[in-house]
Backbone:
């Protein structure tokens, strides 16, 4: 009988001690959570080393780490959105303001020759604005998860050759002649024709605008490399060349929306391929990789 009384007392003392320690631990936890609420990034620690409290603190710390990560992502996305809006406002306002200025000059001038020149410049500015809006619309459409591309097995070289030919005048103005070497001109890929046309167009246009006007293109298997010489005044940041609105030239070239290579990346990935960029010396290289399993040779 005495044995059971002693055992009962010991058990009650143990339970009371455990309850008191647990109560103190909850107060300790509450104090830490209040500190976290003020913005502190402390790691929650336990004063009681039991499995139950260990699991509790482990889950709370994981929950807090997950919240911090989501908070960081949201803040980064918000900053990116603000930067995007600023870039859009600048890019759209520049040709619009310029065109309005020339239209005002036409209104105030009675010289027919000058008015015709002003009108031509104003129309060119409006054309720039239209191109920018079209690229912005296209990029927005491409980044939508619901946007899908229909693909078909078609020869790549004739498409590339036609796009390259459309830049003949610009290459002539730069006194440059592109160098093209396709290992297999009959190679076919499973692509969307309009998308691959735009990919080639944007890459070539980027080489002309931001390079020195030269271009070398090499195809081997499922890989196509586009190489051009970099302007010393504005070398690209290789980590951001495919970012939307990125421009190597801080003066923000009037003929560029900063979406050209971002559109390339979106199109290529939606066709099952990859695109990468690198710099070797003064050479800027874009490497286009089409899905190897979707390449067929005639």
Residues:
């Amino acid at each position: 009988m005495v044995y059971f009384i002693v055992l009962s007392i010991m058990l009650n003392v143990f339970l009371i001690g455990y309850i008191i320690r647990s109560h103190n631990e909850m107060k300790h936890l509450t104090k830490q959570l209040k500190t976290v609420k003020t913005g502190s990034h402390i790691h929650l620690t336990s004063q009681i080393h039991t499995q139950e409290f260990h699991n509790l603190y482990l889950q709370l710390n994981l929950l807090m780490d997950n919240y911090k990560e989501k908070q960081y992502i949201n803040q980064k996305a918000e900053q990116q959105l603000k930067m995007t809006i600023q870039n859009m406002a600048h890019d759209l306002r520049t040709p619009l303001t310029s065109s309005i200025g020339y239209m005002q000059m036409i209104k105030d001038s009675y010289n027919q020759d000058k008015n015709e020149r002003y009108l031509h410049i104003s129309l060119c500015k409006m054309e720039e604005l239209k191109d920018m809006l079209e690229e912005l619309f296209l990029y927005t459409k491409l980044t939508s998860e619901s946007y899908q591309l229909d693909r078909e097995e078609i020869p790549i070289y004739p498409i590339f050759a036609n796009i390259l030919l459309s830049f003949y005048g610009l290459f002539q103005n730069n006194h440059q002649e592109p160098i093209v070497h396709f290992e297999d001109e009959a190679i076919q890929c499973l692509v969307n024709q309009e998308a691959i046309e735009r990919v080639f167009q944007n890459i070539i246009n980027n080489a002309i605008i931001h390079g020195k006007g030269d271009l070398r293109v090499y195809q081997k298997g499922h890989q196509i490399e586009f190489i051009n010489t970099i302007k010393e005044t504005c070398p690209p940041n290789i980590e951001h060349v495919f970012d939307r609105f990125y421009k190597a030239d801080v003066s923000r070239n009037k003929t560029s929306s900063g979406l050209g290579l971002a559109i390339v990346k979106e199109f290529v990935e939606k066709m099952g391929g990859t695109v990468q960029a690198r710099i070797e010396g003064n050479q800027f290289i874009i490497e286009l990789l089409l899905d190897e399993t979707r390449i067929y040779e005639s």
Residues 72-142 form a domain with the Helix Hairpins fold (CATH 1.10.287.130).
